[in-house]
Amino acid sequence: MELARENELKLVAKDIRKKVIEMIGYLGVGHIGGSMSIVEVLTILYYKYLNIDPENPLKEDRDLFVLSKGHSGPALYATLASKGFFPEDWLKTLNQGGTRLPSHVDRNKTPGVDMTAGSLGQGLSAAVGMALGSRLSNINNRVYCIIGDGESNEGQIWEAAMAAAQFKLSNLIVFTDYNKMQIDGYLHEIMNIEDITSKWLSFGWYVQRINGHCFQSLDFAIERALNEKCRPSMIILDTIKGKGFSPGEGKVDSHNMTFDIKVAEKAIEDLERIQ
Amino acid sequence: MSDKEMRAVFAETLIELASKDKNIVLLEADLAKSSGTLSFKKQFPDRLFDVGVAEANMVGISAGLSVTGKIPIASTFACFASRRAYDQFFISCNYAKLNVKLVGSDPGVTAAFNGGTHMPFEDIALMRVIPDLIVFEPCDTVSLKKLLLQSINHKGCTYMRLHRKSTPVIYNENQDFELGKGVVLKEGKDVTIVTCGAICVNEALKAAQSLEKEGITPTIIDMHTIKPIDKQLLVKFAKKSKLIVTFENHQIINGLGSAVTEVLSYEYPIKVVRVGVEDMFGEVGTVDYLKKRFGICAENLAEKIKQNYR
Asked: Which residue of B has its CA nearest to A60?
């Protein structure tokens, strides 16, 4: 990836982070931690890889995307708004009664959301179904999915992992947001998933492990995954929970944080200072 | 017409539908042999996905297939379809407003030698509380074929409770069926039996024969669709009856009987006696043994009617 393109993506990512902080700050509480850790992967998917059309969110040959860790909706909403799927002022309605942007993603409420998720472990199975369905219809698309590391405690993740390999779903590219924290603490204290790389390898997937905040690494990894011909792809993203939100970065308690608009404004100032 | 196995007609009907509509796909969780759907696999090898022993995943995958415009029919034993994959069916399929047809076979006592672990006395109860879901149970091969076709044409999720083995054919081929509309199998007076499914419809018919000898001629309604239930028909017969008796191969808690009382307690209050499994777990045995053990038999039904009538 050229430096200019990388810098462009960095600016987009910063803007998405700003929007996430703003929308949660405006409401006063929300899932900031796991939203901030997936900003780079969402940015590169929506600004480089996904074949989608904000004017026609349901176009038939589109790439499909499932946010299986559905509580990170704010990050997806900020990304979709910046792509023009809906007006940016919707962001201020997060979780308000009657909103089209609920905490957990909902395909019936938000333009550009392909699958409802939030009961953890279910989105990956849905992504497997989408990959099967797309292949059966001879649509030359990809299905992308982000799962959580805490979410990987769910047995259904591993049922879906087996099925994707069995059905040779090379059109399925999955990311694990490996920020190493879940609600009750660090994964290694609550429910350890190491050796995560060997686990996915042993399930028959093409596995890569990269710095999830580095666009160059993301770009290389996605390219390699796109060239894989017979296995589903797992890209494990080493990430930092709450990345770019100064009061919560790297903290377990950033999972669902209460903060007001003043804290949000200060955090955005801090974010602006980062190159 | 000979008494074909229900599963054979299930598979034949799906093959027939799938030849006309390429979007129909079938999912199994290592029970394709039991479900009788290997014939479907033979005909459409790339349209039957056997996900192994993983019912939750099967239902989740069905949701994803539905997003891509497929019409997935997910089939397993009713105990797993309901208890094991409930959240997946609830959230990924129904809450997400997708189009998944879930089929649960071996209802109630028909789980027989598989015993208590496999004996679903509560699947209707669980399914009935899912908003907008259509819940139905055909009682013979004729109603199975026609109702299955309608459920597949319906845009939205459905749950079909399927008796798997052979059972007497009740209806003639010309009988019309509509999801949500009960069928009056036999019209009598004073007592109305509301029932559904192969075991109970047949036992109810037997009970009617013995009651007739004692001067009680019951009406029998095949309420194949438990949700949405046919309110109009219930009220019509409540008005003509002195007693309503519900009869189900299921817990009396939140099953067909509860659905009936929910309607009648408001629309036309009348005495309703619910006959079915009374808050018990299942166990092993032959179907005949289990019918008696749990009171899902003509004798018990007739006895309950005699106790409560007059």
From this structure: B68
